[in-house]
Amino acid sequence: MNKSTKILLLTTALLTILLLSIGIYCMLVFQSRIKANGQVKAVGITIYESDGVTPLTSIDWGMLEPGETKSYSFIVYNSGNSNITLYMTTDSWIPTNAKDNIYLSWNYTGQTIETKGILALTFSLKVSTTISGIENFSFDIVVVGSG
What we know:
Elements: H1 3-32, E1 34-43, E2 46-49, E3 58-64, E4 69-77, E5 85-94, E6 102-106, E7 118-127, E8 136-146
């Protein structure tokens, strides 16, 4: 085998390894990204985007990586006639097993919201580092004002 054939074979082998590496990297990165969105339902209160003007009816969390946490700020307005406290839950998970690896929390600490009062809050959505088999998910966030 002459020198130019050896160089050609070596170059071909290196390009093959490089292309396989890029392919594996892309497969790992893009298959681990998760698309998320959901509806926001308010009971006994009004919820607005952080601008305080636009009603918040849904959140598009965008693409999430395993182990990633995303935050979403919003404003709660007590539109009722009495002081209230808040309660938050999630519902209608699709797929249903997504709730085992995706966690929603917020920074609400139980304070009372007076009549016609407002409170700025933030949801935090965390994806487990061990999540697998879920490429898209959605769920509803239900925030209830009671008092």
